[in-house]
Amino acid sequence: MMAYNIPLAYFFTIGITFFITGIVLVYSMSKSFGRSFRVFKSQGNLAIKVFCSWDFKVIKKMSVRLQSENIPTHLKELLSEVNGGEEEKGRLSGMAVHLLAWSISLGSTFFCALGIHCFAKHMHLRRLEDAEGEVSLVHEARLLALPGVVSCGNLLLLGLFNLVSWMENYNSPIVRLYVSIFR
Fold first, then answer.
1. Would you give the distance in Å from CA 77 to the centre of its chain?
2. Structural domain of residue 7, as residue ranges?
């Protein structure tokens, strides 16, 4: 019968976790990279207006002058529509959303850590009670409950943080990345 080597198990577990995390990060970055070089739907009219607005059938000087004055006017109107939607949100409501998101993130982290602490205390007391009796396979399996609860908490917090990040709706992907890393 082979002995169970705990340091080797920790090493391989951490190595496999880093490998899977690296694959997920590369996939996520490739999707983000692909999205950053597309023409966005809301700004697609601007690109069409810039590259396709000149009518080459215009031959009179007066028509050429009117057309050349008309293009910047249309571009300014389209830009004001795009920027106007962002300004309507208001700074106060944006700050309220960010404050709510951060309080949800910090509160969920605190309560998750508190829950894990209480569960660890409970498991420690159960282990002390079970130490008096005979050690069985069930008692050994109970040792895996705490790492399972910690892993589930991390998984649930990750989903909650992604939901909160979606709720905040950052314009810049780099800001979203920095906030996600900090959380």
1. 33
2. 1-37
The answer to whether residues 17 and 53 belong to one domain is no
DSSP 54: -
Q: What is the secondary structure of 74-137 as a DSSP string?
A: HHHHHHHHHHHHHHTT-HHHHHHHHHHHHHHHHHHHHHHHHHHHHHHHHHHHHHHHHHSS---H
Q: Are residues 164 and 102 in the same domain?
A: yes
Burial of residue 120, with CB atoms counted within 10 A of its CB: 0-12 exposed, 13-18 middle, 19 or more buried? middle
**Count of structural domains, the chain:** 3
Do 83 and 94 lie in a common domain?
Answer: no
Same domain, 183 and 135: yes
Q: Read off the pLDDT of residues 156-174 as tens digits, 9 standing for 90 and up.
A: 888 888 888 888 877 777 7
DSSP element (H, E) containing 30: helix 6-36
Instruction: List pLDDT tens digits, range 102-126.
Output: 999 999 999 999 999 999 999 888 8
Q: How far, in Å, CA of 26 to CA of 31, rounded?
A: 9
